[in-house]
């Protein structure tokens, strides 16, 4: 009965989210169509005005002096008619221009002193989608990126072997200690859908360095933690950093590499992503067997500092950024579904473990 209720609950939540997202997509498409129709109507009216003026000019050149005078009179009459029609349609055109200005303001970099604004101006002058910093190449950017991604992925599997000793030291149950793993994955799942918004708003360099700083601070908190709540805070900070670093790899490779070289770059990234989970349990087992479990996190803290220094020197990549509007309802719905699904499976797994005992 409990299993059926959980499954039906998850399915119902997914259906509701899908219906709401479908309605939002349709409303956006309808708004875009209306904007396109307004733009098309204004362009046609402008083109007709230009054609009429050009025709008048050609007739003026080919006609005699008397015809020119008549054409001038006609032009005055036409201008009066156009002014009347413009006055009649003024509110509608002003509304369209107001909407266009609102869209431009929404997607423009508003702070001229910000790094994003200065980078955008430089990118416009060079007619590119991105620029490198001084003394930086694609190879250096890829090396710094893979280094950061490697430690983020390594951290996911590093805690598996050490979890029993952590539970014993903190005097917590296995289900409570499992939240150190589940919470990490939950925060990862919450952040990954938001990264598309972050990648449009902030430069890749800023996101990379901020993610590494959060990850490194989280590692230090885990290393010095004396109880479960403090360690959980450290794991959440680690998850926030890892949740930005992992999707950043693919988007950076697609941005800086041409199509004929993306395969090799993606293959190199794949090696790092496969190697890190394979090393994690072995390294964790060796540390737990010979040292205290917090040595793992001290090691991640030191490696994180090195990754920050490497990224600060090598990862100088700036892309064209905008000021997009966040889809707040969609983000909230996705987060609710993820939290409910993770919680349901976590509780169901705990009950199954009790029944097996």
UniProtKB/TrEMBL annotation:
Pfam families: MFS_1 (PF07690). SUPFAM superfamilies: MFS general substrate transporter (SSF103473). GO terms for molecular function: transmembrane transporter activity. Residues 36-81 are annotated as: Disordered. Gene3D superfamilies: Multidrug resistance protein D. Residues 141-357 form the Major facilitator superfamily (MFS) profile domain. Residues 41-50 have a biased composition (Polar residues). It is found in: Cell membrane. The chain crosses the membrane at residues 6-25, 141-159, 179-200, 207-230, 236-257, 269-289, 295-315, 327-345. Residues 66-77 have a biased composition (Basic and acidic residues). Keywords: Membrane, Transmembrane, Transmembrane helix, Transport. GO terms for cellular component: plasma membrane. InterPro entries: MFS, MFS_dom, MFS_trans_sf. It comes from the Bacteria. It is a multi-pass membrane protein. Belongs to the major facilitator superfamily. TCR/Tet family. This is Quinolone resistance protein NorB. The gene is emrB_4.
